[in-house]
Write the structure tokens for this entry.
Amino acid sequence: MMFWRVLRGSLWHQRRRLGVAAIAVLLGATLTSALVNLSFDVSGQASRQLRAYGANILVFPRGESAIDVTSIGGMVPARRGIPERDLAVLDGLAGVMGYTPYLFLVVRIQGQPVVTAGTRFERVREVNSWWRLNGYWPERPEEGLVGAAAAAALRLTPGERVTLQFGDAAHELTVTGTVETGGPEDSQIFVPLPMAQRLAGRPGEVGMLQVSALASQAPVQDVAAAIEARLPGVDARLLKQLTQAEEDILSRVRRLMALVAALVLTVAAITVGSTQVTAVLERRAEIGLMKALGASDRQVAAQFLAEALSVGVAGGAIGYAVGLGMAAFIGWQVFQADLSPTRAGLPITLAVAAGVTLLASLWPMRQALAVDPAVTLREE
């Protein structure tokens, strides 16, 4: 009881000095809270932003690979396929943000061979939102898109109807728009997957999958291995340059956050330490009197550490709330997305703030324990 009464009195009489230390801790805790919440969410947000630029895993039937086709452009896989009904196992797979099935074939349009990709346009829009579209996305079974280079070569514009010829099979296609990606897609025609399957005589099959995996949830290599485990008979291959670049960016973001937090917390620790040293110098007589009245070193140490812990917890709690608001602001400004606070944010912030103040108080505490009551009281 006496301990808490003395502690309250000490905190009240030193409120100005300890207020400076609390502000320093608050600033460090604010940044810690913001960085903790951002570090748990920013990797996912950054990964999602990067994923808007296309897939990072390609899935082929085992033993098959893409082969070149002499046409207006593109790549066409070999004849082995993946049953489309099996793709449902990828829905909800950890790390998989989305996937797009493709079935490639070379059709003739106006007598020219053109690489044609059958796909699900709703999934293309999910995985390849970066495509530049002139027109609108197909909505009907007979509608499709034409790559910009293919459209220029075939003199096709949105709204035109063309005939796709593949062997003895033929289908009419209405062009709803042209797409430009700067890649092989510019030289291809995109049709609904069922149309491509009927033309090729391969009902219920796809030839390739493009998978967009979030590196923030799991290593992309692990996602690829999980895909191979869920889909027997396939090879999941990483687009290594894109995957490595994404992982490097996320790693650098995390290191930058850790470095900034460490610098601010170091400044906070120095401020708390210097405040406590000043307090020890000014309270030498009080410390000497406590010892002369029978206070042990453990009790004196507990007094100083309790004061430091009070400053750390107070600064950490307020800093957490301020930092949460800062993180939400940064998340919206940078990623245009609402931040999802992590449950670990408050305990981590409080632990860091308390740990910094306690560590910063160790040297001043040793100075307090070194006070000789006889000498101090004689001086007074």
Remarks:
- Residues 67-75 have pLDDT under 50 and may be disordered.
